[in-house]
Design goal:
Order of helices and strands: EHEHEHEEEHEHEHEEHEHEH
CATH class of the domain at 81-266: Alpha Beta
Bound molecules: zinc ion
Strand order of the largest sheet: 1-2-3-4-7
Oligomer: single chain
Number of strands: 12
Largest sheet: 5 strands, parallel
Strand content: 15-25%
CATH architecture of the domain at 81-266: Alpha-Beta Barrel
Amino acid sequence: MLTNYHTHCFRCQHAEGSVEDYVMEAIMHQFDKLGMSDHVPYPHYDYGLRMPMSEIWDYIYEVREAQEKYKDRIQVLLGFESEYLCTQRAYYEELLTEYGVEYLILGQHFFDYGGQFRSAFAISDTAYCVTYAKSVREGLGTGYYSLLAHPDIVGVNRLPWDRNMEEMTDIIVESAVRYDIPLEINANGIRRGTVTDSLGEHYMYPHYKFWEKASEAGAKVVVSADCHSPHLLDNDEVHQAKAIAKSWGLRLIDDIDIRNPAKDNASK
Ligand SMILES: [Zn+2]
Ligand SMILES: [Zn+2]
């Protein structure tokens, strides 16, 4: 089965293509399912690199329209890539209920560090990576998320692989296994290329040290395109990411279970 649950569109202001463009690309490549997961907007604050809150319904209607129009050829899912901020829990629940969002993936681009806001892309000390991991663990524990996007994203900071990095990895891998949520090998990491440091030449992410532990723990793994342009949905880097995941002995799955606590409660 061919699926991709990590797909952006032009609304996030750093991607190109409409929902329909991605759906047509997916159909051309004979995908069975395409999950749209553009960056979630927040009602009271604009964190940047995402659609304004005023466009949320336009996005939702656009995905709904594509679902209906192409339903005989592909299953399209309505999702968001979302951070986990404990102050926004009510909003995440609202997304999964009132807004009718089918699934969320956790992309922890920023997190709280003792009341301070930290970007996962601007970490200067590996101690922050442990805090990052704890925020991911808390997010996974909520049951709102169906997939953990780029769990090793902090690799972009090119920090030394030390005990904090080991602890970060342990926390994330253990919680993914405990909550049975797949970890994502992200093709954008392949697109960013390799670096050479004391470990030798390796990708910043997917970082092989992280995935060694994921492999040992038998965590479920999916490969996502994280495409910000339709032609990147099923291109060389995606195929390469799949080949790497296989070569690392990861437990690759081709489809995920959708978590939606709102729907689960409604059916009880
Ligand atoms: Zn993006
Ligand atoms: Zn992301």
